Amino acid sequence: MPLPHRSRAKAVAVSSSLPHPQPQKRDILEDEARFLRSWFERPLVTGAVTPSGRMLARTMASYVDPRLTGPVIELGPGTGPVTDALVRRGVAPERLILVEYNPDFCKLLRRRFPKATVLQGDAYNIRAALADVVTEPASATISSLPLFTKPLEQRLDLLSSAHDLMHPDAPFIQFTYAVVPPIPAKSTTYTASRSNKVWLNLPPARVWVYRRP
Fold it and tell me: At 153, which CATH number?
């Protein structure tokens, strides 16, 4: 997961003709171990002790329209459960731009999604991270960042920056374990909606979707 005040992100894009593999139980257990280790080392960066569950990942991906043109930006993909859900949703892997701070997670993402563009850098400063990468309006931004660890001003700036990179009315998708929205729901510059609580996730979570009209 990302950490502020880092140098400009470095893009790595690799192509492969291999099919996207089905996650195995062993892979899931290894991912949980990676997340737990990362959480112990950097609890404010990782923000969770386990990766997003399959149902939560599927709920987040459901707000992305794969027919809309442009890249799909994912912030804080971790070990890739939401990335996998996006691919299963019908988003071509080569359209994915993954911004991840943890270098070990970046290596894993490049192995699992070789056609995606993986950026190691600061997802909270996406203006700099994506300046030379996003060449057309994005169709969605999907975030697993621990937003509550950041001041509200920084969260609002992230949302505004993401909307600047996207088509009008394209979604900024964020999950949270909290009972309150990670970014205030009432605003004159964007709209906000929420999913039902995903009880099958551990812990239960909710998805918030922000759009700029």
Answer: 3.40.50.150
Q: What is the reported pTM?
A: 0.78
Nearest CA to 148 out of 122, 121, 174 is that of 174
From the number of C-beta atoms within 10 Å of its C-beta (0-12, 13-18, 19+), residue 128 rates as: middle
Query: Which residues contact residue 176 at a Cβ distance below 8 angstroms, ignoring those fewer than 6 apart?
Result: 147, 148, 182, 205, 206, 208
Q: Domain for residue 157, yes or no?
A: yes
Asked if 177 and 205 count as a contact pair (C-beta separation under 8 A), the reply is yes
pLDDT tens digits for 9-37?
444 333 333 445 555 555 555 655 554 55
pLDDT tens figures, 47-87: 444 456 889 999 999 999 999 999 999 999 999 999 999 99
Which residues, listed in sequence order, are joined to residue 11 by a DSSP beta bridge? Answer: 119
Tell me the residue range of the domain where 120 lies: 30-36+48-212
